[in-house]
Design brief:
This protein is α/β, with parallel strands linked by helices and 334 residues long. The protein has two domains: 159 residues, D-Maltodextrin-Binding Protein, domain 2 (3-Layer(aba) Sandwich), CATH 3.40.190.10; 133 residues, Glycine betaine-binding periplasmic protein, domain 2 (D-Maltodextrin-Binding Protein, domain 2), CATH 3.40.190.100. The protein contains 15 helices and ten strands. The strands form four sheets. Strands 3-10-4 form a three-stranded antiparallel sheet. Strands 8-5-9 form a three-stranded antiparallel sheet. The chain is globular and about 65 Å long. The termini are far apart. The N terminus is likely disordered.
Length: 334
């Protein structure tokens, strides 16, 4: 009995030792899950998947993409149910943003892309022509919104040809109301019909169709978007942004929006390596335009766009992380 008892004790001690040895390995293999605000627009989803690929393959966390609208997801971010917002258009949620920051629930890590833009534009060939396509300049003196009365016939509305057609946004967009006000402020409602498009696809599609045919088009759009990544468009000048003029009658250019990266403050404790990377994460509108145009041309997904960026812009993303993390990401891309 003594021999058997001694053997049993040794066997139990062996199992205990093995379990103790394995514990650190199990703990280090599971660093947790990073949850992203997965908004409906492509640029936000692309940024989620660029950052997500690096976080998963380079740093070692699992990922989750939570879908929803702007208010719902930012509220979830404040409550700690989501961890990261890669594309916060701050002015669009100013009241909620101020609340999140004031309560100390959310940290602003800085700009994702600071050179975003929205406004009025025309195809560049309308002004300069396009010799390769045999297109002559149609409105060589067109520079600003105040030149549009002179050229209304060039943009004639096919359904109401006594005026030109200005392609506006869709019902429910704040910018659509702004553009309608601008038309009146600039006195352009006398020359142009305010054409409210039914969807983003209809708005971008009208521009794409005009460019394909080499026809004139004037309207509103913004970037980063696949459209402005694909087509050569020229912005029409407006008076520089002025808060007083904006508050009065929108009689000036749109101001640049703050498009920043936000995280729940708990993340600094739970995943400081992720927060460190996101603080360094920064792109440009031109970069994102190219990604979205690539996706459009190849009919690719947002995952495809992220992989394309990571494979083609090592000069950008490797600056956000250490050499050993970058090596893991590069290996995962092969």
């Amino acid at each position: 009995m003594k021999g058997k008892s001694s053997y049993l004790i040794k066997f139990i001690m062996f199992l205990v030792c093995m379990s103790l040895v394995s514990l650190p390995i199990v703990a280090s293999a599971a660093k947790g899950t990073i949850r992203f605000c997965d908004f409906s627009w492509d640029s936000a989803q692309v940024h989620n998947r660029i950052a997500g690929f690096i976080i998963k393959h380079g740093i070692g966390y699992d990922l989750e993409y939570i879908t929803g609208d702007t208010i719902m997801l930012n509220t979830a971010l404040m409550q700690g149910n989501v961890d990261v917002n890669m594309e916060s258009w701050t002015e669009n949620i100013q009241e909620l943003y101020d609340k999140m920051i004031k309560l100390g629930k959310v940290a602003d890590l800085g700009s994702n892309f600071s050179d975003n833009w929205q406004g009025w534009l025309v195809p560049t060939y309308v002004i300069k022509g396009d010799a390769k396509r045999g297109i002559k300049p149609m409105a060589p003196d067109l520079k600003s919104v105040f030149d549009l009365p002179k050229y209304w016939k060039l943009f004639k509305d096919p359904e109401a040809p006594d005026k030109g057609r200005f392609y506006n946004g869709i019902p429910g967009w704040g910018c659509t109301k702004v553009n309608s006000t601008k038309l009146k402020t600039y006195g352009l409602d006398k020359y142009y019909n305010d054409f409210i498009t039914g969807s983003d696809a209809a708005l971008s599609g009208s521009m794409a169709a005009a460019v394909k045919r080499g026809k004139a088009w004037v309207g509103y759009y913004w970037e980063p978007t696949w459209v402005l990544g694909k087509f050569d468009m020229t912005r029409l000048e407006e008076p520089a942004f002025n808060q007083e003029a904006w508050d009065k009658d929108k009689g000036c250019a749109y101001g640049a929006a703050k498009v920043n990266i936000l995280v729940n403050t708990r993340l600094s404790k739970d995943a400081p390596d992720v927060v460190e990377m996101l603080r360094k994460y920064e792109t440009t509108t031109a970069m994102v335009n190219k990604i979205l145009a690539y996706m459009r041309d190849t009919k690719g997904s947002t995952e495809d766009g992220a992989i394309w960026f990571l494979k083609n812009r090592e000069d950008v993303w490797t600056k956000w992380i250490s050499a050993d993390v970058a090596a893991k990401v590069k290996a995962a891309l092969k």
